[in-house]
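User: Just a sanity check before I run the rest of the batch. Below are the structure tokens for the first item. I only need the designed sequence back.
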């Protein structure tokens, strides 16, 4: 299984997963023309995508979903609660997955885990390649990490985790106090420190790639996020690659599987 982050941040999110037989997106928070351009970087025709899995209804995750699904014949997969917030999906073929459920889409097994975020029924997604058994977790837009989520992140080969803000930069930054409180609240976004803690707790011998996602352009920088999370991972003796995703550039391909990265000291990458 290969993973590409087509873009991640408050202006749009989309993650591509592919095997030899199937392709899915997790979120499509860009207009179809932008999705098409970024998929071209991965050499993927949009019509070849089987489904788009939508984590929640915020614009930076759904912006292109309805139009792209109609244009290129994608199935939309999401929770009933998210679907309720997106009336323009009405005429589309939609598989509704209740909370804490699992579903097979093409070559992938999807597990959903509820997360705390100010949306109707937001979720994290664990994607397993049925043929290879490799597992990737996509965890962003959440205010804090629960025990049940941590348990679901057990035995991943790759973890995509939100590192939205540096706490000091958020405090000193341009956002008004009410917005700052929303971001750092229980239903907001994970800080670099939160990401460091969750990533460190997910380490096992098979986890060889961690990708930091949904970085704020105002309250974080890739170097700051990599520094904070990298320090923590080094202390936890993580052996693998830590990468920061980008709002504007495609990151990938990252091979998801045990043989993809040799066991070596922590490597930091601003992009691949
Ligand atoms: Zn978001
Ligand atoms: Zn959100």
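Assistant: Here's the designed sequence for the first item:
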């Amino acid at each position: 299984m290969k993973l590409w982050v087509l873009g991640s941040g408050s202006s749009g999110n989309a993650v591509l997963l592919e095997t030899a037989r199937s392709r899915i997106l997790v979120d499509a928070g860009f207009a179809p023309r932008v999705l098409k351009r970024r998929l071209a970087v991965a050499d993927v025709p949009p019509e070849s995508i089987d489904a788009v899995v939508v984590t929640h209804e915020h614009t930076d995750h759904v912006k292109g979903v309805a139009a792209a699904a109609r244009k290129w014949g994608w199935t939309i997969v999401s929770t009933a609660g998210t679907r309720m917030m997106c009336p323009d999906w009405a005429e589309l073929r939609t598989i509704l997955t209740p909370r804490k459920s699992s579903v097979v889409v093409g070559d992938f097994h999807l597990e959903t885990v509820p997360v705390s975020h100010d949306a109707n029924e937001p979720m994290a997604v664990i994607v397993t390649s049925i043929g290879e058994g490799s597992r990737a977790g996509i965890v962003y837009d959440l205010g804090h990490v629960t025990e049940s989520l941590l348990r679901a992140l057990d035995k991943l080969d790759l973890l995509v985790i939100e590192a939205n803000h540096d706490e000091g930069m958020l405090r000193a930054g341009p956002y008004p106090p009410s917005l700052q409180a929303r971001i750092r609240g229980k239903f907001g976004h994970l800080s670099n420190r939160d990401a460091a803690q969750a990533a460190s707790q997910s380490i096992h011998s098979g986890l060889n790639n961690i990708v930091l996602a949904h970085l704020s352009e105002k309250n974080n920088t890739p170097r700051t996020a990599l520094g904070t999370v990298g320090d923590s991972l080094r202390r936890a003796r993580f052996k693998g690659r830590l990468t920061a995703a980008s709002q504007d550039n495609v990151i990938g391909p990252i091979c998801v599987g045990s043989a993809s990265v040799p066991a070596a000291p922590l490597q930091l990458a601003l992009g691949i």
